[in-house]
From TrEMBL:
Lineage: Bacteria, Bacillati, Actinomycetota, Actinomycetes, Pseudonocardiales
Protein name: DUF5709 domain-containing protein
Bias kind Basic and acidic residues: ranges: 21-46, 69-80, 88-99
Segments of this protein annotated with the region Disordered: 1-99
Domain of life assignment: Bacteria
Annotated source species: Saccharopolyspora erythraea
Length: 99
């Protein structure tokens, strides 16, 4: 099985098992091809797989796969902020003021 056919990794979530399973279904985490199509991952990965000169010098075995995984991870964290809670970004409403 190719990596792109494996269920997407949500990381360690703080969701109860039932809620995590529902979130996986809702966000196509167990259907990576559907997730990719919905988020236009193939086209975006093709564009982002073009290496910068310094990246090209360092080399990459598969820039397309690398770009695809970065985009998937980013899109998944955007859609499902509960994934990987250790990377949680605090969001404040505009009516809060700094002290």
């Amino acid at each position: 099985m190719e990596r792109q056919d494996q269920p997407l990794d949500l990381g360690e979530t703080e969701l109860p098992a039932g809620e995590e399973q529902e979130a996986r279904r809702e966000h196509d985490a167990d259907a990576p091809r559907t997730f990719d199509e919905r988020n236009d991952i193939p086209e975006r990965a093709a564009h982002r797989a073009r290496l910068l000169p310094e990246e090209s010098a360092a080399g990459s075995e598969d820039p397309q796969a690398q770009a695809r995984e970065v985009l998937r991870d980013s899109d998944l964290r955007t859609e499902l902020p509960e994934s990987a809670p250790d990377t949680f970004i605090e969001r404040r409403s505009s009516d809060e003021t700094a002290t």
